[in-house]
Design brief:
This protein has 270 residues and is mainly beta. Helix content is 13%, strand content 34%. It has one domain: Jelly Rolls, CATH 2.60.120.1350. The strands form 3 sheets. Strands 1, 2, 5, 6, 9, 11, 15 and 17 form an 8-stranded antiparallel β-sheet that branches. The chain has a 7-stranded antiparallel β-sheet with strand order 3-4-10-16-12-13-14. Strand 3 and strand 4 form a beta hairpin.
Length: 270
């Protein structure tokens, strides 16, 4: 009997290890997952005039220098420092979600929330959003986790077998880790029903002790997707996004950039 059970377990492991990666994904019915948006492997798109997924219209504003505000979409998943201080290298991390293991959500949206006027999505009719998934992008995660890392040799988080080295996050202005009491980085989600503001929700992607007044003992940096309850916004026709951190420069400007990833938006069915 024991031998039979062992054979069955071994057979199961063999079958699952040979299964195509997409067959391992469990579809979530009715959630807006962006997976109908076609992308080649490990690529992204910054659209010219926004994009639509699941009946929601996401705004995008492209800038002349190649940057954007609002939303792009991507399937990139990276956990490594960039190798050179170039736009292409930085974009690898800006447009990658940071997860502990290979990301399993396929396509997702990346927000650059430098302007609330640009960073929003709209719905055709007032609808309650039950929740959405949020995550750090790699660019922000590495900056918050390692700081500028100008002096200490550490292991590359994506290549543990590589020799320790003084890797750089190439994030302007960052000179320390965000590991001090009171440190935080959060997404502020604001809902509107027509022209009327219906409420707001704070989604913390980094939170040290005494940073969140409602949860003073929290102490974490998100390393995977987190579901945030947005139902308190009530029925909405528009949702805007900004970010906020306590880590600021001498002029009071946020040092951690306004990036985050979003996926798995669940709308309440009537």
């Amino acid at each position: 009997m024991k031998k039979t059970i062992f054979i069955l377990i071994a057979l199961f492991l063999t079958v699952t290890s040979c299964t195509d990666k997409n067959e391992l994904l469990v579809p979530i019915p009715n959630d807006i997952t962006f997976n109908e948006l076609t992308l080649a492997s490990y690529t992204h798109v910054i659209p010219d005039d926004g994009f639509t997924s699941g009946g929601i219209k996401f705004n995008t504003k492209k800038n002349s220098d190649g940057s954007f505000s609002g939303f792009a979409y991507s399937n990139q998943n990276n956990r490594s420092f960039v190798w050179t201080d170039t736009k292409a290298a930085r974009d690898t991390n800006i447009l990658s979600v940071y997860t502990n293991y290979r990301n399993m959500t396929e396509v997702y949206a990346v927000a650059c929330a430098t302007s609330e006027a640009d960073t929003y999505f709209t719905l055709e009719k007032p609808t309650v959003i039950e929740h959405a998934l949020f995550a750090n992008n790699t660019y922000n995660y590495l900056a918050m986790r390692y700081g500028a890392n100008t002096g200490s040799a550490i292991t590359n988080p994506n290549i543990p077998s590589a020799p320790k080295a003084v890797w750089s996050t190439f994030v302007p202005g960052v000179d320390r880790k965000m590991d001090q009491e009171g440190d935080y980085y959060k997404v502020v989600v604001t809902g509107y029903n027509g022209a009327a503001k219906s409420g707001s929700v704070d989604v913390y992607l980094l939170c040290r002790k005494n940073a969140d007044p409602n949860n003073p003992n929290f102490n974490f940096t998100r390393t995977d997707w987190i579901a945030a309850d947005l139902s308190s916004l009530g029925p909405v026709t528009k949702v805007t996004f900004t970010t906020e951190t306590n880590y600021k420069d001498v002029n009071g400007k946020d040092i951690i950039h306004s990036y985050f990833c979003i996926d798995g938006i669940r709308l309440r069915k009537e």
